[in-house]
Amino acid sequence: MRYKKDIQRYKEYSKSSALLLVLTQQGLWALFVYRFFNAIYRSTMPKIVKAPLLVIGVFFQKWIEVITGITLPYAATIGEGLYIGHYSGIIISPETVIGKRCNISQGVTIGVSGRGAHRGVPTIGNRVYMAAGAVIAGGINVGDGAVIGANSLVITDVKEGTTVLGVPAKMVSAKDSKDYI
């Protein structure tokens, strides 16, 4: 069901058929492998069955990484309707949480950073737009409807419905992601 929502998001942008999108969009390839093995990872099937399937999943994930440049570990939590605008150079930590209807552009990294109690991975809200080259790192929260500007380094919380930009990222606008998503 979630994969259908992913395809619907792609259709909103391209107006192409689902078949054409599935055959040509590397983001959908990565999402398919992620959704399939995430379902196994979160299932209640016996460990004796689950473990070998997840080992196979790691090989499929690595294959997708090689051909698309997109790292979507099956252990991450990704809401329905994710749109990967351009493939390549996208790295997401396995512990990351991403909300519904988010957009990720090429070169985005969402990962572990920080020291001591501040070490962790980001939690990304719903309808967040992450522009090309953005790095979002550490145990931070990015609020719903936020916009992360291109090549920004986000290492502190981002308020809901704001735009941040820079290194380190600072709020530059109270405009939300409505025009991007």
Automatic annotation (TrEMBL):
InterPro entries the record matches: LbH_SAT, Ser_O-AcTrfase, Trimer_LpxA-like_sf
Domain of life: Bacteria
Keyword field contains Acyltransferase: yes
EC number of this enzyme: 2.3.1.30
TM region(s), chain numbering: 20-37
GO molecular function per UniProt: serine O-acetyltransferase activity
Signal peptide range: none
Catalysed reaction equations from the record: L-serine + acetyl-CoA = O-acetyl-L-serine + CoA
Keyword Transcription: no
Key words, A-Z: Acyltransferase, Membrane, Transferase, Transmembrane, Transmembrane helix
Similarity comment: family membership: Belongs to the transferase hexapeptide repeat family.
Name of the protein described by the UniProt record: Serine acetyltransferase
Organism: Dokdonia genika
Upper taxonomic lineage: Bacteria, Pseudomonadati, Bacteroidota, Flavobacteriia, Flavobacteriales
